[in-house]
Amino acid sequence: MRRSASRLSWAFLLGLAAAQAASAQTPAPSAGQKSSPTQLVDALNGVFGRHPGARAVHAKGIVLEGSFTPSAAAPAVSKAPHFQAAVPVVVRFSDFAGIPDIADNHPLASPRGFAIKFKLPNGSDTDIVAHSFNGFPSPTADDFRDLLIAIGTSGPNAAKPTPLDTYLESHPVAKAFLTASKPFPASYATLPYFGVNTFRFIDAKGAVTYGRYQMLPIDGEHYVSDAEAAKVAPDYLQTEIRQRVARSPIRFRLVLQIAQPGDKLDDPSIAWSNTHRTVELGTISITKAVADNAAAQRRLLFLPNALPAGIEVEDPMINARSAAYPVSFARRQQ
Fold it and tell me: Which CATH architecture describes the domain 60-132+183-317?
């Protein structure tokens, strides 16, 4: 059943791409060209379409509020202010596709997104952007754009082999990402989430640690079967999370997975093994949904390279993502 759901997701993506390909404005990259932020967003729009007021990807979401309390071990990892004392947070759970009205039980709704905005004592913010799949389809922003263009030009009427067929033949990691089983969650609150990019953490003494974030649900992982998912309402995850947080706080452990010698720190397509050492950074406690979800989503912009002293970019894709997000943000304000 999981495998068939993966095939359905891929087939739907190709069909959607066919509908968008005629209006896509994304030029093919020249040899050696570095993708611009606008080109990356154009490539996403070429797959999912451009929807007024919506994000280019992870368009459907819900915003909640709460707090983050650091662990006793966090200051030894980083001198960042939110690892020294508790701070408020704004979080957003989302479905994957750049389609604002996608059903929560649609295969393209996975992987789910979890973004966290930490409100720091000096009035600034720092953000984490993660998703519910431990890995990423591409090692670089340029490769990711190539994948998106291949999808956007490979509808059901495309000549065989399609651009996507050709791309996936030489990119097994991207193929695994597209076809991997992504079971339907019982709740946004019962999924693990992974920050696939590596950051550099510096403590008060200057010691450096390299790591990737994980957000692990304290209530455990819980999923529904394909048969059960077929019967749920299109907005079941949003309805469930509102009901859940009204009953009691939703809590996640914020964990740092520590790099080992030999790990590629600049390649998010390579997931690190479960044997890597982890450090508990603290607890995210989500206590309420915002009153006006649409307004909150419209004004929120998450930037993974908005970092305080004590955390620095290690993976270049962090900056590529942070440059593309404002392009999408500006378009959804129009």
Answer: Beta Barrel (2.40)
